[in-house]
What does this fold into?
Amino acid sequence: MDRNLPPDETEYILSHSSKANEALEWLTRQTNLRTNHARMLSDGIQGLFLATVSRMTAPDRILEIGTFTGYSAICLAEGLNEGGILDTLEINDELSDIILEAFERSGHSGKIRLHIGDAKKTLSSLPGPYDLVYIDADKREYCEYYSLVFDKVRKGGIIIADNVLWDGKIFSGTSAPKDRQSTGIMAFNDLVASDERVSSMILPLRDGLNIICKR
It folds into this structure.
């Protein structure tokens, strides 16, 4: 199920929205040239959405689980308060060079701390509290990430999880998907919907964003 907007609509939206950080154009090209998974990159509209949420909430501390090449981290960093910090977690150390160069080009390198390693282990060493959390990593582990970060999020803080509509696979007909990534996303969405500690909604932007506010 393709939720991408037609090119003319995308162009219109981007041309009538705030200008994105110039480093993102460089990063998009480099991600396509230097990685085999460029489809994992956030697109322009989703990036602007993340930057807008960050600016609206003016966070002091942001946590991102799943850096990839750094596109979403740069967008999220746009709204950090002066002196604010974004901790971003990535398991693939081979991406370090492109990530760090992108952060430098964006002007946000002093605000972003890159942590390479297993996210679940890294989370245990990060005390919080966080104002804004963005989850875009191994879909099989979304429920675990949610449980690990929940107490690190301040009251009124926001958690955003990406890919929660999972290309339509999770509601694709009579037979439920059996692969672990699909079942992980389904379990996560069920967990959030039943969690009385939060209010939430799924926004059908790109592949779906679950926007969760801690009560």
In short: The longest helix spans residues 44-57. The longest strand covers residues 153-162. Residues 68 and 90 are 7 Å apart (CA to CA).
